[in-house]
Fold this protein.
Amino acid sequence: MLTLVYRKINIVRIRTNEVKTMFDAKETIVYNIRNLSLHISHYIHHHDEKFMKHEFENDGRKDQVSRLQGMAIGFMYTNRDKQIIQKDFEKAMFISKSTASGLVNRMVKNGLVYTSPSAEDARVKCLNLTSHAMDVMYEIDKQATKTEEALRRGIDPDELKVFFKVLNQIKKNTK
């Protein structure tokens, strides 16, 4: 049975005595992955607070390295045997051209990267890590290792294999 209720602002709401069954959001993959992501972010922020606020020394001035800059340094370090350009950041980190441009400019300004012309195309600027960025990468790597050890604590290696297999299937399902 439907009942129409009129409000002063002429919006019509429909009330029904029927109860519709909705799915439980807490039982969905999306909810649980987002919840886990937030939980891990909070863990990193609170347990690694000293690291997150760590100021790296660079020629007498102090700089804070943002999370995005840290990700970019990690990407460059992982792919150090390849020629890295700004477009690689856009693809790897799913960021826009303007965000990547601002990121590169800040990293150059902060002494984390320097640019050099590409061997194939002089119009293209290659990005290279500075020794300061390598020091930052070393600190990030130490902290990431501690965090990963904490996250894996108490989880059987076979269960981790299944976990990663499921994550990869979810990635395939969402391409």
